[in-house]
Amino acid sequence: MKKIILLLLVFISTNSFIQKEDAFTTGEWFKLRIHYGLVNAGYATLEIKEATRNNQKVHHVLGKGWTTGMTKLFFEVKDDYQSFFDKETGKPYQFLRKIDEGGYTKYQEGFFDQNNNTVKVKDYEKDTENTFSVPENVQDIVSSFYYLRNHPKIDLLKEGESIAIDMFFDNETTKFKLKYIGKEDIKTKFGKISCKVFRPYVQAGRVFKEEESLTVWISDDDNKIPVRIKASLAVGSLKADLDAFKGLKHSFKVKID
């Protein structure tokens, strides 16, 4: 379930918009509270730290997901997604995926060679190492979110128009497409927030009910952070709401009635 949320965040990333200035900076952190039906199922967080790769400072994003309460008793989730990407270009250097979702586990680390358009993936569970060819400017699942928050075309989308990026996930590159729906004000624990609404195209089947089963609301300000996510799943429905945040680069706008 937590993997779904991080995927949603990634999809959300697509809803990210770009401005003259970066939408985020080191120290940004936010948490989403996840509901499965009427049950408080867990939380997901994303945090930006700083690291060094290729002798230069890069963004290091840590994505965590976990179940709580009764959900944890029946279906425990512990997810760890990480990405290291360039501060200027947004191109990823490295990713980590270490998950345990009700006994389904994966432990992989990927290393991008952007000059040769390849990614070397080490699978620590299977003790294997494989190299895959990827398109230029490919993103991993976490870096996608941040890359798209600074994408030059997002703010130009009109209702019904879409944008697509290449994303490497599960040892393959997929074309992620997201459609802009429009604007909406939604009520939150922080007050009324103006949002832009997007609908990413997802694969119908095991997880999602239909291709357009996912809807995301992104703050219509310079931060472009996720405020709400709704998904119709193959079994039940999921909702995630912004629960806490800190270290935003720009002021978070709340509407006054």
Describe this structure in words.
It is built from 3 helices and 15 strands. The protein is mainly beta and 257 residues long. The protein has helices spanning 2-15, 69-74, 141-149; strands spanning 29-36, 39-53, 56-67, 77-86, 92-101, 104-113, 118-123, 128-133, 139-140, 162-169, 172-188, 191-200, 214-219, 226-232, 237-246. It has a 15-stranded mixed beta sheet. Mean pLDDT is 87; it is low at 12-19 and 204-211.
Quick tags:
mainly beta; 15 strands; 3 helices; 257 residues; 15-stranded mixed β-sheet; 11% helix; globular
Mean pLDDT rating: 87
Please tally the helical runs, counting DSSP H or I stretches of 4 or more residues.
3
Secondary structure class reads: mainly beta
Query: Unreliable stretches, pLDDT < 50, 5 or more residues?
Result: 12-19, 204-211
Task: Give helix % range.
Answer: 10-25%
Described by strand count, sense and barrel closure, the largest sheet is: 15 strands, mixed
> What does the radius of gyration come to?
17 Å
Distance between the termini: 36 Å
Give the ordered list of helices and strands.
HEEEHEEEEEEHEEEEEE
Q: Based on Cα principal axes, name the global outline.
A: globular
Count of DSSP strands: 15
Spatial strand sequence of the major β-sheet: 8-7-6-5-4-3-2-1-15-14-13-12-11-10-9
Strand content: over 45%
Give a quick rundown of the structure.
The chain has helices spanning 2-15, 69-74, 141-149, and strands spanning 29-36, 39-53, 56-67, 77-86, 92-101, 104-113, 118-123, 128-133, 139-140, 162-169, 172-188, 191-200, 214-219, 226-232, 237-246.
What are the SSEs and their pairings?
Blueprint: H1 2-15, E1 29-36, E2 39-53, E3 56-67, H2 69-74, E4 77-86, E5 92-101, E6 104-113, E7 118-123, E8 128-133, E9 139-140, H3 141-149, E10 162-169, E11 172-188, E12 191-200, E13 214-219, E14 226-232, E15 237-246
Parallel strand pairs: 9-10
Antiparallel strand pairs: 1-2, 1-15, 2-3, 3-4, 4-5, 5-6, 6-7, 7-8, 10-11, 11-12, 12-13, 13-14, 14-15
Helix pairs in contact: 1-3
